């Protein structure tokens, strides 16, 4: 079964930047559509951004203009460049993709301090 593995999370001060990566074990696990979701403590999981295999992207209003999603199909890897981070961006970031968008990574923690 294919896997998605996130990396790049960490602790950063408000206004700083982080770059998350999501590596798929194979092309099928990546899928035509890949996305990032996040879950803050005590809150429901929410959509952050998505990208298709031809680079069409979509963003949640809360991150538009600050985050950039991209993917390298040759590496089966998706990225999320996060700039001007805010305390409210804190949470566990999950990668989603694969057939029927049914594959999830285990998440990577992003903590933004004030």
Share of residues in strands: over 45%
Low-confidence stretches: none
Task: Enumerate how many helices there are, as a single number.
Answer: 1
- Mean pLDDT comes to 95
Distance between the termini: 40 Å
What's the helical proportion of residues? under 10%
**Rg calc:** 13 Å
Please state the overall shape, judged from the principal axes of the Cα atoms: globular
- Which structural class best describes the helix and strand composition? mainly beta
Report the biggest beta sheet as strand number plus sense, adding barrel if it closes: 7 strands, mixed
Number of strands: 11
Q: Note the run of SSEs as H and E.
A: EEEHEEEEEEEE
Task: Give a written overview of the molecule.
- The strands form 2 sheets. Strands 2, 4, 5, 6, 9, 10 and 11 form a 7-stranded mixed β-sheet that branches. The protein has a 4-stranded antiparallel β-sheet with strand order 1-3-8-7.
- β7 (67-72) and β8 (77-82) form a beta hairpin.
- The chain has 114 residues and is mainly β.
- It has 1 helix and 11 strands, in the order βββαββββββββ.
Write the topology of this structure.
Layout: E1 4-7, E2 10-13, E3 18-24, H1 27-30, E4 33-39, E5 46-52, E6 57-59, E7 67-72, E8 77-82, E9 91-97, E10 103-104, E11 108-113
Parallel strand pairs: 2-11
Antiparallel strand pairs: 1-3, 3-8, 4-5, 4-9, 5-6, 7-8, 9-10, 9-11
Briefly characterize the structure.
The chain has one helix and eleven strands, in the order E-E-E-H-E-E-E-E-E-E-E-E. The protein is mostly beta strands.
């Amino acid at each position: 079964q294919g896997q998605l593995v996130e990396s790049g999370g960490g602790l950063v001060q408000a206004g700083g930047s982080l770059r998350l990566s999501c590596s798929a074990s194979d092309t099928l696990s990546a899928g035509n559509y890949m996305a990032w979701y996040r879950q803050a403590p005590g809150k429901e999981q929410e959509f952050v951004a998505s990208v298709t295999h031809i680079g069409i992207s979509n963003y949640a209003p809360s991150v538009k203009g600050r985050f950039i999603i991209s993917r390298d199909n040759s590496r089966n890897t998706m990225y999320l460049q996060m700039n001007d981070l805010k305390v409210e961006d804190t949470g566990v970031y999950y990668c989603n993709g694969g057939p029927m968008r049914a594959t999830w990574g285990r998440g990577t923690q992003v903590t933004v301090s004030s």
